[in-house]
Amino acid sequence: MPHSFVPTGGVARVRHEPASMPRGAGCGVPPDPWASVSCMRSTRHKGGAEGHTVLMSGHRRRPRALPALAVTAMALLLTACGAPAAEDEDRTRITPDSAAPIAGTFDVGEGREMYLECAGSGSPRVLIIPGQRATVQEWQSVGEDQSAPPVFEQVAAQTRVCSYDRPGTPHDGTATSRSSPAPMPTNAEVMARDLRALLEAAGETGPTVLVAHSLGGLPGLLYTADHPDEVLGLILVDALTPELRRAETPGQWQVQKLLLSGDVAAMTAEYPDIEYADVDASMDQVEARYGDLPGIPYIVLTADEEWGPIVERMVADGAVPPIVPPDFGYLLDEAQRVSRPVTAALIPGGVWISETDSGHIMHHDQPQLVADTILGMVDELRAAG
């Protein structure tokens, strides 16, 4: 059977093929560390954003771009979980949901408020966790060369979608946040706890597909482990996970942390409350909870724009500290080649979509792919009941 490729604990590697930029005919057989990863190909009809492969029978809406093999992998996992064991009978079930739009702040305790924005109706709700110093606004826009609507808008047309501003995330190019200041550095536990308090205050808990980008991958994984009865599916969008730290040498990791945090001294001089995280503490917190991750549909989207030439130019331009060697981007690329298949295997049956023709801000570079991946998972969960 051509689709029986998801072994227990295995990973399906799917390559998204942009219709305008075909990548060639074959995946090839990569050396380690890919040896345990199934290399599968996704194809799309010609014709741009409206020419995506139809993914499921009886689909009455616009076709999704989520590779059909990824949907098959999710269907296999959902089928396997279709008859819940006795201990799973209290798991939150998908029910119809309709709610008014939200755009405002809510009391999260300790004298603080946080900004939340929700739109659309339906279940499961999609919850977007932005990356470092990013806000809802980043998911409501696209790259200049993109004709597809923003991801937030596309998802809101089909189901409920929410996202939020963490403390210290500058809004609309200003040195202010729509959320109250909080002590820095923050960490994954604090971010996950704040998120839960915000959703409870707004009445936006319940069946959820969680989407986490960049640094948001750390609180996203922790939130999934904390609330396995509510998080029904997880999508990581070029997310930071502890596997990157494991793939780098201690010396490389020190440089990596510097690039991840940026020039904190300069940033806090301009905006004292700006967000920055204790990445090591966050990764320790997440690793300690890996055993609590539920067996749910899980997709990892990764950028394929390489960092080598980018960091090389940044070093030449003096845009990074002198401690960063010119070849560090190439070392990072290699570390990502090692870490990504491990990240995709964190949950059995995980699907890895690799060749995305995208940089790190994938929801700007490939908004259609990201939106269709999200909505494809929503469709599959609805079909499974």
TrEMBL record:
Top-level taxon in the UniProt lineage: Bacteria
One Pfam family this sequence matches: Abhydrolase_6
Signal sequence segment: none
Keywords: Hydrolase
Region (Disordered), start-end ranges: 1-28, 165-185
GTP-binding found in the keyword field: no
Molecular function GO terms recorded: hydrolase activity
Bilayer-crossing regions: none
Gene Ontology, cellular component aspect: membrane
SUPFAM superfamilies, alphabetized: alpha/beta-Hydrolases (SSF53474)
Residue ranges that the Swiss-Prot or TrEMBL entry lists as coiled coil: none
Limits of the AB hydrolase-1 domain: 126-372
Protein name: Alpha/beta hydrolase
Organism from which the protein derives: Microbacterium caowuchunii
